[in-house]
């Protein structure tokens, strides 16, 4: 009985949250870009603002380069004898 009550309360809370436009409906979570290529080409930013578009592309490209460099450094530092 208690589990059913908890389950019903959780469902009501989720429905209330979706109606109010809470975290589940946040615009940043509903990105246009669903692929990696879409992410790095900055499909989810305003295309009318070239500074934001190219700034986002450059920042995402640099973050990829930094990630690869960090992965190589960690591999060489900890997995090489």
- The SSE string, one letter per element, is HHH
Oligomeric grouping of the chains: single chain
Helical/strand content category: mainly alpha
How big is the Rg? 21 Å
Count of alpha and pi helical runs: 3
Mean pLDDT: 81
**Portion in beta strands:** under 5%
Which runs of at least 5 residues are low in confidence (pLDDT < 50)? none
- The first-to-last residue Cα distance is 59 Å
Structure summary, number of beta strands:
0
Q: What is the makeup of the main sheet?
A: none
Shape: flat
Number of domains: 2
Can you give me a brief rundown of this structure?
The chain is an all-alpha fold.
Structure description:
- By secondary structure, the chain is mainly α.
- It folds into two domains: 1-30, no CATH class; 33-81.
- It is built from three helices and no strands.
- The protein has helices at 2-20, 36-40, 50-78.
- The mean pLDDT is 81.
Write the layout of secondary structure elements.
Blueprint: H1 2-20, H2 36-40, H3 50-78
Entry keywords:
about 80 residues, 3 helices
């Amino acid at each position: 009985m208690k589990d059913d009550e908890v389950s019903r309360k959780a469902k009501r809370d989720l429905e209330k949250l979706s109606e109010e436009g809470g975290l589940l409906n946040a615009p940043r979570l509903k990105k246009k870009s669903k692929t990696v290529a879409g992410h790095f080409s900055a499909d989810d930013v305003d295309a009318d603002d070239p500074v934001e578009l190219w700034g986002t592309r450059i920042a995402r490209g640099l973050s990829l380069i930094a990630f690869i460099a960090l992965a190589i450094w960690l591999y060489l530092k900890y997995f090489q004898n």
